[in-house]
Amino acid sequence: MPERLALAHGDLTLNSRKIEVPDPEDAIEVAYDRGWSDGLPVVPPTPLRVARMLSGTDRDPGQVLGLIPPNLAECTVEKAAVNAVLAGCLPEYFPVVLATIEAALEPAFSMHGLLATLWFSGPVIIVNGPIAKRIGMNSAGNALGQGNRANATVGRTLQLLIRNVGGGKPGEIDRAVFGNPGKYTFCFAEDESDPAWTPLNVARGFRAGTSTVTLFHGDGVQGVSAQRSRTPEALARSLAMGLCAVCHPKLAQWSNAILVISPDHYAIFRQGGWGRADIEAGLREALRRPGRDLIQGAHGVEEGIDPARAEEMVDKFNEGGLLVVRAGGRGGLMSAVIGGWSAQRKKDEVQTVTREIRL
Hints:
Helix content is about 30%, strand content about 15%. With about 350 residues, the chain is α+β, with helices and mostly antiparallel strands. Strands 3, 4, 5, 6, 9, 10 and 11 form a 7-stranded mixed sheet that branches. Helix 4 (about 75-85) crosses helix 5. The longest helix is centred in the middle third of the chain and has 16 residues, at about 150-165. The chain is globular. It starts with a helix and ends with a strand.
């Protein structure tokens, strides 16, 4: 009712262009015809639905969030609300959506480049802090899959916004050779249930208890089965072997990755006294390889690093390039690797971005 009254009495004025849909024409089919969909049905953004979405934030609907690539079209809070409705968000998700958009538009994230790449990657969104629980995000079983409204629609909103406001469409500026299913949506929350664990956002310099989004340029999910390791050292070595495959086993410091550690694997680390810093150090050591094994032509494989590095010990990832996150359900000694965009090798130009969520 507050939103109905605000629209009726002029307390809220929407500036987006209105599209009349003649009855009985199907508004969902109109969205398909006009190219507003990612291929799945969308929720028609009626004025009332957009007004309700705007109730999820204290920000002015006319506030400009930035310029959306590739067309560098101006995006207001209202335009973000329209696309959040299309994606199926609830108003309480909207602060997460706004922080996600702002993170994607930071120059360091290189959203335009990510959109235009031939590689598989798209934005991966990791949510930390109290807001994840408040809006019912999934960090447990099937956290990287379907079935949770908040996970699904927050990530979808960003993709729809790039399409509908920025003009970034597959087959046009989006030139991915394959893409990946995460380009519909790829968003999940970190499991912060263990108070001994240092959450990702705290490791990245934010105050404990802060709600944030972290955006990573990610591919699909690669499963890593490590059933027999029973010590932290052995498990780190086993998981590292899975991480070696990111981009190519002989390409080092070429792309980044996320390692999503399952509860059962984390229990092995925890019982061995390993926290975040120990896990990261153990993985880094296990991933270091002699340059002579990685150079171009080694082992009869032409792919590889510069032959000038043959005498070095080479790290798989640049410092800070491997993000360790906790998530998933119990019952399996497996973890997940999310490989990264090959442009991440240009570490001064392409970076993971974390941004605080505010109303």
